[in-house]
Amino acid sequence: MKDNGHKSQITIALAGNPNAGKTTLFNSLTGLKQKVANYPGVTVERKEGPWTINGKTANVIDLPGLYSLDATSLDEHIARDLITGEQAGVPRPDAIVAVVDATNLERNLYLVMQMFEFGVPVVIALTMIDVFEKQKHEIDVEMLATLLKTPVVAFNAKTGRGRTELAAKVNEVLHTTPTVPYVYDEKEDEAGPHGRIFARYNFISQVVQESVWHSDQKSHRLSDKIDRILTHKFFGLVILVAILLLVFQTIFSWASLPMDLLEKGFGAFGDFVRAEMPPGILSDLLADGIIAGVGGVVVFLPQILLLFLFISLLEDSGYMSRAAFLLDKLMSRVGLHGKAFLPLISSFACAIPGIMATRTIESRRDRFATIMIAPFMSCSARLPVYTLMIATFFAGQTVLGFISLGAVLMLAMYALGTIVAIAVAFVLKRTVLKAPPPPFLMELPPYRLPNLRTVFQNMLTRAFLFLKRAGTVILAISIILWALMYFPRSSQQAAVSGQPTSQQVVLPESEQLKNSFAGRLGHVIEPVIAPLGFDWKIGVALIASFAAREVLVSTLSIIYNVGKDENEQSETLISAVRDAKTDDGRPAWTPLTALTLMVFFVLAMQCMSTVAVVRRETNSWSWPLFMIGYMTALAYLGAFITYQGGKALGF
Amino acid sequence: MKEKISETAKMTLTKLPIGKDARVTAVNGTGRVTRRLMEMGVIPGVLVQVVKMAPFGDPIEVRVRGYSLAMRRSEADAIEVSV
Fold first, then answer.
1. Same-domain status, A609 and A551
2. How far apart are CA A77 and CA A92, in angstroms?
3. Could you give the CA distance from residue A619 to residue A617 in angstroms, rounded to a whole number?
4. Is residue A107 part of a domain?
5. Radius of gyration for the alpha carbons in chain A, expressed in angstroms and rounded
6. Which of B25, B67, B73, B79 to mutate to test the interface with A (most CBs of A within 10 A)?
7. CA-nearest residue of chain B to A235?
8. What's A62-124 look like in SS3?
9. Does B25 touch chain A (CB under 8 A)?
10. Does B9 touch chain A if contact means CB atoms closer than 8 Å?
11. CATH code of the domain in which A177 resides
């Protein structure tokens, strides 16, 4: 094939089975200059980066981990389209680097067989060869290349072995057409619909037989020994629970220091801006709208980083699939796949990566059921709400004399979310998403020490994606909300009502809020939320938090800061909430109101970003709308029962 | 395909004792799961071994082509083996 001259850059696709060391190879080739985006219309991640081949910079595209190119799952479909050049926005690759795990040669080569059929030249990068040789097996790389009729390069990211050779081989195969090394004639086929699969594997078996010498000694590998403990019928479950507890403990305790620092930092920055700029709309917008709003979200960064650190460690070590293996029976009783475990656990940090992680579930109905319940997992955005309520009304109280009431309530909120999620999944799987028990086919990869660089890079990518969200959606919402509360200015209001229009007359700030667009909206919904014990100010905060939960805290602080004209002592938010009064002078908050609000937040769908992700993942508006509808109904019901029940009990 | 099944009681992967080597004789079914099973290397003629069961007896871990594949009993039931 000829290069048409106008195509200046070489495109290389990197493809291979999951757990074959693809990410490590990609990182080793491209370093830190990676770009992560999504393929248009779907949330399959598209990673690419530069790689120097023969003095020229090639663009390496990292395909999702695949077992086959038969296009039965979304990932496979995209990979196939990309290789055939049908994926919009991506040029057809000039060569494929096939990542093949030497310790799992037969199954890894299956995908390579399919690659040959697409007519794009293939170079095999053989990974894990050090592990393979340590097990006293031998592999004849040259023989392998001869039999497969394509270059094979042994690659080790740690030592750099094979890196130059890989580039040289890729350069060699450019503009060549691969030969399909196995023979298969559809017309002469008598093996039925799966004849091609048999032909591929039969050829692979021959190749492996001629190029690999397995050691006779039945080595009880370390991985097997570890596995016997970690998937033990009893200890396996105990260890799983212990690991989960450790993860949560860490997220809550280790993250608090950097979170405090970030919070103080943004506070100081806001004060600085206010002090340095002339007072007016612009300084108000910057300090109260933008810095306070975005700062309130960025505070969660330490938690997100820690959670993704753990998820990467668990995934890269091979433990995550064991967890799915251990839990599948329990999960399938509810009607979910064992693989739903990871997305649901991720959703405890944030439903967005959790929902994105459902891609690994092949059955559409199981995937949708998992997506629908993911937002019930108490995400980190709910934490500040719980924390504020607990700190304000339940701090320092104990149960049975020594257990902190706050901790009990916190745990209760997590439990409530999880129980409701299970119940909803149970109902969904028997109604709208009715389907027979999903198939469960999952590789249990050998345990490996996680590659720290991969883990670290994964963490940074997540952090970046999160900050991007904070910088776009949350920024926009912050500005809109600020404007809703800032306009119309009360002096204009005064002019309308025929009072003196002198600019010197500045109305109390609580009056300003009451007359603002947000205030009016709060008043409109007050009759609806009154049975929940919420006044219109809480209503304003609720409206705001339908965009993103964490906004509740910043909105409350804006509401009560704006309305602080009567009590100068109420500097902090906690005392402001505690001292807040309804319009008729009663305390706006009681411990029961706080509890009701927490229950509402456990159940309600208050996150625009999640709605947007669900829309993309399900490729329809009906699912996200259904989600908003049923979750809001459940939240209202839950809050109603809590408040009215609590009142009836005399709280 | 069907005529391959012998008259003696069919042995499926579900009934195979843990740790015993067996050879796959047939993979029944026509759907996506069957296809995926085969693409993962479970085809007639291949050696398999049940390594262990999960805590509640399901799923099971199967050793095939040098790697471990977890599957539910419902999937394993479709795989016929001979010892």
1. yes
2. 15
3. 5
4. yes
5. 29
6. B67
7. B55
8. ECCCCCCCCCCCHHHHHHHHHHHCCCCCCCCCCEEEEEEEHHHHHHHHHHHHHHHCCCCCEEE
9. no
10. no
11. 3.40.50.300
Residue A227: which of B52, B11, B34 has the closest Cα?
A: B52
Closest by Cα among A447, A325, A230 to B69: A325
User: What burial class does residue B66 get, using C-beta atoms within 10 Å of its C-beta: 0-12 exposed, 13-18 middle, 19+ buried?
Assistant: middle
Pick from B46, B53, B61: CB nearest A444: B61
- The dihedrals phi and psi of A459, each to the nearest 5 degrees, come to -60, -45
A199 and A339 belong to one structural domain: no
Mutation to test the B interface, candidates A103, A328, A341, A366, most B Cβ within 10 Å: A328
Is residue A491 very low, low, confident or very high in pLDDT (cuts 50, 70, 90)?
Answer: low
What is the rounded average pLDDT of the residues A447-453? 86
Q: Is B2 on the interface with A (CB under 8 A)?
A: no
Cα–Cα distance measured from residue A492 to residue B72, given in angstroms and rounded to the nearest whole number? 69
Q: Across the interface, which of A72, A192, A231 has its CB nearest the CB of B52? A: A231
Q: Which of B1, B43, B75 is facing A197, going by the closest CB pair?
A: B43
* pLDDT value of position B5: 47
Calculate Rg over the CA atoms of chain B: 12
Mutate to test the interface with B, among A75, A194, A337 (most CBs of B within 10 A): A194
Give pTM, 2 decimals: 0.77
Q: Which of A433, A269, A285, A415 is nearest to A363 (CA)?
A: A433
Q: Phi/psi of residue A566, each to 5°?
A: -95, -20
Cα distance between residue A343 and residue A159, in whole Å: 34
Report the C-alpha gap between A530 and A35 in whole angstroms: 49
Co-location of A248 and A207 in the same domain: no
The first and second tokens of residue A368, run together, are 């949708």
Instruction: Map out the domains of chain B with their CATH numbers.
Output: 2-82 (2.30.30.90)
Q: By three-state DSSP, how is residue A156 classified?
A: strand
Residues paired with A587 in a beta bridge: A581
CA distance A443 to chain B (A): 5
A424 shares its domain with A459? no
DSSP letter at A360 equals G
Are A38 and A162 contained in the same domain?
yes
Please check whether residue A229 lies inside any domain of the structure: no
Euclidean distance between CA atoms A635 and A369, whole angstroms: 19
Nearest CA of chain A to the CA of B24: how many Å? 13
A494 contact partners, CB below 8 Å, separation of at least 6 = A500, A501, A505, A507
Is the Cβ of B17 closer than 8 Å to some Cβ of chain A?
A: no
In this structure, is residue A439 part of a structural domain? no
Q: Roughly what angle, to the nearest 10 degrees, separates helices A195-211 and A141-148?
A: 150
Convert the pLDDT of each residue in A500-554 to its tens digit.
Answer: 444 444 455 556 777 888 888 989 999 999 999 999 889 988 888 877 787 788 7
Looking at the structure, tell me whether residues A311 and A407 fall in a common domain: yes
- How many residues in total does chain B contain? 83
A426 touches chain B (CB under 8 A): no
Q: What's residue A424's pLDDT?
A: 94
Regions of chain B with pLDDT less than 50: 1-7
Which structural domain, as residue segments, surrounds residue A503? 452-648
Return the residue matching tokens 């196995």.
Answer: A182
Say yes or no: A193 and A315 in one domain. Answer: no
A329/B57 touch (CB, cutoff 8 Å), yes or no: yes
Question: For A198, which of B1, B32, B43 is closest by C-beta distance?
Answer: B43
In a shared domain, residues A627 and A546: yes
* For residue A174, pLDDT beyond 80: yes
The total domain count for chain A is 3
Is A68–B39 a contact, with Cβ atoms under 8 angstroms apart?
A: yes
Q: Report ipTM (2 d.p.).
A: 0.89
Asked whether residue A341 is assigned to any structural domain, the reply reads yes
Closest CA to A321 of B43, B71, B37: B71
Res B38: pLDDT: 93
Dihedral sign of CA atoms A178, A180, A186, A192 in order: negative
Instruction: Show which of A178, A213, A248 is a domain's final residue.
Output: A213
